[in-house]
Amino acid sequence: MFSLLRSMWLTFLHAFHKRETILYPEQKPILPTRWRGRIVLSRDPDGGERCVACNLCAAACPVDCISLQATEDPTGRRYPEFFRINFSRCIFCGYCEDACPTYAIQLIPDFEMGEYNRQNLVYEKKDLLIDGQGKYHGYNYYKVAGMAIGGKDKGEAENEMPPVDTKSLLP
Amino acid sequence: MATIYIDNKPYEVKAGKNLLEACLNLGKDLPYFCWHPAMGSVGACRQCAVKVYKDENDTKGKLFMSCMEQVRDGMRVSIEDLEAKEFRAHIIGWLMTNHPHDCAVCDEGGSCHLQDMTVITGHNYRQYSFQKRTYRNQYLGPFLNHEMNRCIQCYRCVRYYKDYAGGKDLDVFAAHNHLYFGRAEDGVLESEFSGNLAEVCPTGVFTDKTLKQHYTRKWDLTSAPSVCHHCSLGCNTIAGERYGTLRNITNRYNGEVNGYFLCDRGRFGYEFVNSAGRVRKPLVRSQLPEATDKYTALKTAASVIKVGRTIGIGSPRASLESNFVLKKLVGEDNFHHGVSDVDHDLVEMALHILREGSARTPTLQEVEKADAVFILGEDLTNTAPMLALAVRQSVRQQPMLETVSKANIPLWQDAAVRGLVQTDKGPLFIAHYIPTNLDELATHTFFDSPDAIARLGFAVANLIDAGSPEVRGISEEEQALAQQIADALMKANNPLIISGTSSGNERVLKAAANIAHALVAKEKAAGISLVVPECNSLGLAMLGGHKLESAFEAVLNGYADTVIILENDLYRRASAATVDQFLEGCKQVIVLDSLHNPTTEKAGILLPAAPFSEADGTLINNEGRAQRFFQVHPVQQEIQESWHWLAEMGTIMADQEISDWHDYDDVVKAISKEYTALEGIRKTAPPSDFRIAGQRIARAPHRFSGRTAMNAGLNVSEPKPAEDPDSPLSYTMEGYRGQPPSSVIPFFWSPGWNSNQASNKYQEEIGGHLKGGDPGVRLIAPDGTLPFSEAVPQKFIPLEGHLYMLPLHHTFGSEELSNQSASIMERIPEPYVKINAADAIRMKLDEGQHLSFSIEGQIYQLPVKLSQTIPSGTAGMPNGLPGVPFAELPAWAILNRDIKWKQQPQTTF
């Protein structure tokens, strides 16, 4: 009997507590930056596509909802010819972001992706690619990789020596 | 056998092997770089260090490089010893100091030996934070990409390219930490075996350039075991597909056939499958629109066949099944071989020799063990490249047997063996009309006309066994050479005679058969290897059928009015005029092919046949080995195997027997029932209902990605995966994960071993047979009933105003399908005619000037190349080269000294 009354009393007290419920969508929730929401493809500080189409995100994806095809521009810079994420399958686990060696693929705090038509949940590269660097600023994969691409010749990356002169005998 | 103790556990291993091989054989994951099963040990990379203890009381032990240490009975070894482990981790750390952060953009990633070894040694984080060395790359031609930064200086590339494959233009340059592996200057890699560098290189310095154009990681490929369709040797390959297009061909280890390597025609010839010239829709040319659906095409074809008097023309590049079903459909009497009459006779002759001769055909791996070789009239590098590579190894046999075994050095000690052998070579004699790439290894080369080559062969046979006919009027010089060859062959333990159909002369084949017969009569374990023109030439010959000429006659004489042409461009089999006349004489022409060609242009009904990667079938290679190839991926369009098309036609026509065939196994059963000689093809692979633990064998690896996204662009609702009624393989990643039977291995993978080096885990013994026996069933065994041939030819006599035109072959350019591959196209030579230098002076011709001649009415005008070796009165013309109209060679060419070109029918070259 006592416990019954106590419970009712405690419930009654809640009427005077601060509200936790937000009036979404009039009021937007504040999400932490590491919230795993919509997936984007970001660009490096120079504005180039960060994704080098290495396929690691696709391999890491437990529901296999990422598919892409690598291609190269005439200077040897690799990028995805198409990049498709099937969000009707995505479980927002963030493994793709963990696997990405170039910080290209990022999960951002946005969850407003509801669609009436399931087909619209299939995002292509034009839907995924953003114009900024996303959460990770300043990183440019091609500045640390050894491949020569347009605008960066051999030996011009960070921590690289100029190309070896094979004709020299000097140590 | 010897007992060794690894980490205090006793193991039985084969004595005489090196410790690394023994450990790998036992399934231990011991890292290595410079060692390669086909190339032996040099002990350069220091990666395979293990602790070896003096005896059981020794607790300290010493570090040894396991690849350099021979297995001894009672040996005590530790792989797990902390010091050894630390040593190996340090070595890889040092090798990685200059390795770039490239994995994400490197084509090797995911099938990289260096990645695997780094993970095995536990070198997870890089400690080196100083500057990295860089290199400039080279252009190496259409096949390989060069990225020198990634090099770890293991020397495998030069050891393979120079020592193993005999290449001249790849080397190591510079000194100390500036070592550079490449060419002296940018340029196309000359060797026909350069593509293997992509697999030999443990990292991404050399990678497949054709794969780069549609790059896919190994884990994303849907692969199936396949057999190379580009020459008669039948090398085993793995074909990989992604998003509906074929992505690459890699080596499929077969301990009896190709071992670890492939030639460039086989590796890069696959691109024709993706070419724009593919036939993708059934066409019925009597209606508009021409492109139609499967059933309209089939019904039209069936009705045409029903009314017409139909003949069928088979193909040496189509599978045994397709040829068989065509033969059934048109009837035994109406089945013709779609090959030139010269080829028809020569292949029949070769089959005759293999079946009734006395010498056995060695496998490619046995060819490597031959200690005396005599090649008659074959330019192996250009007609059967991998056989040339095997012969290249065989010349080392005799010195190795003699000097190396005496010096008590194990054969896997590569550097020591090569140092001891130096340039010593075993006996290799080559008789051909032009220089071949193997000449540099030959004890003696003999250049003359095919008839003279046959005469030399007969002389050798006569010297070995007097039962073989004598050769009259032979010069003293030739007699002395014949004696030298006969002596060398008699001295050898495993003499080998190689010949083939490419010189177009049956006397050469007969001479080769006589030598082999004579050697066997003298109780020698002699072998005979005969090269035939195409991948299923021997299969077609075993199936039997009439000549192509009789097909032409049947139509011209009105016995037939409808023809079914199976995967065959007749304009490569007979002269254009003849074929034009033939096709015009036919009321209905039904063609099944995978690529558009001049014959498909003339087809009334054209059915899209599946190329090798979209088909199941069996091929019979030049040793009589039946080998199964599997469909790699399901096809969306209305493309199916030729045997499927033909069987469906038969079903529509209510053919009693054909209506009962529902899948691949039914056709194979029917073949083996009808032909006792072909019974073995049922054993080439498990039947389609074969399951392991109730499961099919998965074509895709377990890491296969993008399953739920790749087709989502078209429709988000995923379709049911395609099922394969014809094989025990599944098209998806679902299926049995362990090792399948050797004939259905879709890819080599083992936990921790993602590169092709995983094949170690599939072998009974490193570099030996695959577990459960190598794939393929040999159908031919010689019965020794063939008597000595008496057909010694006369000397070749030149004819005034004529040249005897001999066929010349090219690795890149002479084969129909690979000619349609973009990368191969870059390597195809320009058309030419090769004439004797002395003849050229007489004809007042210089290199590059045009020579006009005609063969059977077909006029040619080709730039001249001079040759010192081609006999006077003969000339050579490239066979099958694009832009050179067909002529049945060898043939007499009439020299047209003053052709009035304006009055001639114009032919475009």
TrEMBL record, chain A:
Its main location: membrane. GO terms for molecular function: NADH dehydrogenase (quinone) (non-electrogenic) activity. [4Fe-4S] cluster 1 binds at C51, C54, C57, C100. It is an enzyme of class 7 (translocase). The keyword Nucleotidyltransferase does not apply. Its cofactor is [4Fe-4S] cluster. Gene3D superfamilies: 3.30.70.3270. SUPFAM superfamilies: 4Fe-4S ferredoxins. Its EC number is 7.1.1.-. NDH-1 shuttles electrons from NADH, via FMN and iron-sulfur (Fe-S) centers, to quinones in the respiratory chain. The immediate electron acceptor for the enzyme in this species is believed to be ubiquinone. Couples the redox reaction to proton translocation (for every two electrons transferred, four hydrogen ions are translocated across the cytoplasmic membrane), and thus conserves the redox energy in a proton gradient. Belongs to the complex I 23 kDa subunit family. This is NADH-quinone oxidoreductase subunit I. The lineage of its organism: Bacteria, Pseudomonadati, Bacteroidota, Cytophagia, Cytophagales.
Automatic annotation (TrEMBL), chain B:
Residues 83-122 form the 4Fe-4S His(Cys)3-ligated-type domain. Keywords: 2Fe-2S, 4Fe-4S, Iron, Iron-sulfur, Metal-binding, NAD, Quinone, Translocase, Ubiquinone. It comes from the Bacteria. SUPFAM superfamilies: 2Fe-2S ferredoxin-like, 4Fe-4S ferredoxins, ADC-like, Formate dehydrogenase/DMSO reductase, domains 1-3. This is NADH-quinone oxidoreductase subunit NuoG. Residues 1-83 form the 2Fe-2S ferredoxin-type domain. Its cofactor is [4Fe-4S] cluster; [2Fe-2S] cluster. Residues 221-277 form the 4Fe-4S Mo/W bis-MGD-type domain. Belongs to the complex I 75 kDa subunit family. It catalyses: a quinone + NADH + 5 H(+)(in) = a quinol + NAD(+) + 4 H(+)(out). InterPro entries: 2Fe-2S_ferredoxin-like_sf (IPR036010), 2Fe-2S_ferredoxin-type (IPR001041), Asp_de-COase-like_dom_sf (IPR009010), Mopterin_OxRdtase (IPR006656), Mopterin_OxRdtase_4Fe-4S_dom (IPR006963), NADH_UbQ_OxRdtase_75kDa_su_CS (IPR000283), NADH_UbQ_OxRdtase_ferredoxin (IPR054351), NADH_UbQ_OxRdtase_Gsu (IPR010228).
